[in-house]
Amino acid sequence: MITPYVLKLQCPDRPGVVAKVSTALFECGGNVTEAQQFNDPVTGWFFMRVAFDLARARGTYASLCETIAEVGRSLSLELEWQLYDASVPSGAVILVSKQDHCLRDLLYNASLGDIKLAVKAVVSNHPKGSFLSADESIPFHYLPVTRETKSQQEAQIREIVEETKPELVILARYMQILSNDLSEYLKDRCINIHHSFLPGFKGARPYLQAYERGVKIIGATAHYVTSDLDEGPIIAQDVEHVSHTDTPEELARRGRDIERRVLTRAVKWHTEHRVFVHGNRTVVFA
To answer: I need a labelling partner for 37 at 20 to 30 A (CA). Which of 81, 92, 216, 278 fits?
Structure first.
């Protein structure tokens, strides 16, 4: 069986990067199946994603890595790169509170193979009950939290992450704000979903607030978690037009649908290694 690989790289833009990378993969016996690139005219950085296989491999995996590193040295570039075995599912820990629509959608798509996701654990600050649907084969951790116990509860979350070693932590409508320390620990590997009313409608019952203001568009945003609340690099967004005829309950129902779609889309792109983080922005080769 031929192993598929994905190479991600980013560096200051210079002439010859594409040629060097293509030549390096060819010399290693690589067969390119997909290639995307972006030259950012504002920052002067270059981003590239290449999917390939080694059907005619002429060396080892280690020699391939050395060849890629040599590309950066030959061009005197600050080359940042990662090489992934695309056949291996990304391990994930999912955090959830009472609303489980996003969790359900992730588990369903993972079971179909539409997302290459291996869920290592589900963590909730609420007991597992009829509101929470999770595969019985996936370990479930009930970690209640109060203002006084927040640091201890987050220490338990960190222990689970360190034990399972996931590539990704997903906040699937986890209604707790992560501390700065935990956010920094999970930097670039933790995805959150929220309704796009933020920061316009903060606090409880945002869809009721939206109804009272007569909004005409609702939406959702998936982003990487940072210590700045809901200000992390955006991965995916979507919106839907609504009208004065929609009740708060209907807005909430339609909002849940958008949230699950957007989060699943963001997780899919992340696990397919299509997302580059650069500062507070992302480049997404969807």
So the answer is: 92
Residue-level pLDDT at 58 = 66
Residue 220: both structure tokens together = 């959702």
- The amino acid that residue 70 corresponds to is E
Cβ(222)–Cβ(237) under 8 Å?
yes
CATH topology (fold) of 4-85: Alpha-Beta Plaits (3.30.70)
Structure tokens at 90: 């990304």
Cβ-based neighbour number of residue 203 at 10 Å:
6
Catalytic residue set: 230
Angle between helices 17-27 and 61-74 (to 10 degrees): 160
φ, ψ of residue 166 in degrees (nearest 5): -75, 155
Q: What type of residue is 132?
A: L
Q: 90-284 domain in CATH 3.40.50.170?
A: yes
| Closest residue by Cα to residue 164 from 115, 119, 102, 107 | 119
User: Where do you find CATH 3.30.70.260 in the chain?
Assistant: 4-85
The answer to whether 172 and 190 have CB atoms below 8 angstroms apart is no
Q: Is the distance from CB of 125 to CB of 176 less than 8 angstroms?
A: yes
Closest by alpha carbon to 93, among 166, 15, 177, 6?
166
Q: Please check the confidence at residue 130 and state whether its pLDDT lies above 60.
A: no
Angstrom distance (rounded) from CA 258 to CA 223:
14
Question: Which secondary-structure segment (H or E) carries 70?
Answer: helix 61-74
Listed in order, the ranges of the chain carrying CATH 3.40.50.170 are 90-284
Task: Report in angstroms the alpha-carbon separations of 107 from 86, 172, 174, 178.
Answer: 19, 11, 16, 23
Does the bond joining 166 to the residue before it have cis omega, within 30 degrees of 0? no
For residue 124, which of 94, 150, 101, 148 has the smallest C-alpha distance? 94
Note if the pTM is more than 0.70: yes
